[in-house]
């Protein structure tokens, strides 16, 4: 429990220095409440989540919650992440929605790596087949673009728990014009 105290102190001092005093006080009260009423497993999950908010810019909020490591080569992409309690369902196994999130994220990001300049893709349709429960420590995936059309890309994705295939997905992605910067 000492590491929880140190984490709380570090976060408290970081927030204390920020100019948004009322906001910091509200967060401090919420954190104290979380530390007082939750068990060690829940606190570990909260710490895992909070540790991703490190001040470095990332592409999306999802990448802060689920820090996927992705790599791309041509029309193939891979994803790897250590499984945490934030990914499990109430049965203590990898949640099917998280598996679909991983597949969709990898397939869409892969497409966006290879689309023509000025274009992006958005998910049009996705089908996911589950073959086995996910109980391993490391979740990985491999996606392959199987067709690049003028308006749609078709992609397949396999998701593994350790080295066991747990899901197979297919997705179609619409090409759209790149939106203006926000």
Automatic annotation (TrEMBL):
Residues 92-164 form the Thioesterase domain. InterPro entries: HotDog_dom_sf (IPR029069), Thioestr_dom (IPR006683). Pfam families: 4HBT. This is PaaI family thioesterase. The lineage of its organism: Bacteria, Bacillati, Bacillota, Bacilli, Bacillales.
